[in-house]
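Backbone shapes recur. Consider a single case.
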Amino acid sequence: MNTNERIVITGVGLTSPNGDTLEAFRANLLAGVSGVSVIETRFMGKVLAGVCRFDEHKYQSKKDRRRGTRAGSIAIHCANEALRRASVDATQIDRSRVGTFLGITEHGTVETENEIHLIRQYGDDVKFWSHHHNPRTVANNPAGEVTVNLGLTGPHYTIGAACAAGNAGIIQGVQMLRLGEVDVALAGGVSEAIHSFGIFASFAAEHALAWHDDPTKACRPFDKARNGIVVSEGGCVFVLERLADARRRGAPILAEIAGHAMNSDGTDPVLPNPERVADCMSMAVQRAGIEPGEVDIVSTHATATETGDIQEATAIRQVFGDFPRAHVNNTKSYIGHAMGAAGALELAGNLGSFDDGLIHPTINLEELDPRCAVRNLVAGVPKRIERVETILNNSFGMLGINSAVVVKRFVP
């Protein structure tokens, strides 16, 4: 194991509510384009959601899609796109050396709700229960569907890390590469959350489900008028490789994973602990071999819930308050909360800053909650800075799980 092995990103595949390629996603973040719309969900009627519109059959047959899950389909699309963008031909490599590590917030809820709804139409007769239910609902399903689709024989599993899962998938990929267990890691996160009425109902019961007459203005992190979460689906998968391997095959290198950290609050199921959040950010920065004053972008987790936004802002002030270089932004304001995919998508959305020097803003921030005030909060319009060298990507989740990933501009 070489803990100092340099790990780089050589490909990105994604689908989000406002873009199905890295270029489209980035362009819409810079243009302030929201992907939130109105959908109908069982028992609740109209709700606001971030819906992905990628072609499910680009990499899957109709039969395979029917047998599988929406999360699996998202994962398959993202993994295939990531490999294509990384110039990796899955038929020409040792497929036993490719690992698939995908973060999820939850899995199986959608499929179980659908099956219960179906048999209710037939007097609860379980003979109408799908024989595909078990492989659809096992926790490793999304990553497993990728391996079946691509014929990969290396290790695969999902990482259940609540809404820190996108970062957790990336961290697992980095660790498995450094352990020498794999040569290529497909790492990131996926979510099919909008297809579960239970997720909407639970947030509504907590008075944490957002609503606005204009759906595009519903997700309002740090804003005084914020009123909750917009639930979204999505996915983002990175191709990660050891630098030496990437160089050997002349791969495109988008960025370097410089540091990462995960910890636990150990205090409350839903209320974040700003001290532990600050510790997590500080550990990631330290492991990246830099100081807080060298971070250019802090990509926030902020979900537009009152306590969550305030606690994260408190932690950011604690770590970065004395340093003028760090700029703070948010991606959920465009797409809502993509749960297990959130951290990976938010990191991907900021990667373009290495090339164009632009920091995409937080949108829908019309009146800042003073309790969320942080230095250099980019809002409304993009901000150009001389050069972006380092990005810190935050992602936190229920039961007090915290994650942070630091990426740097690749320097040979």
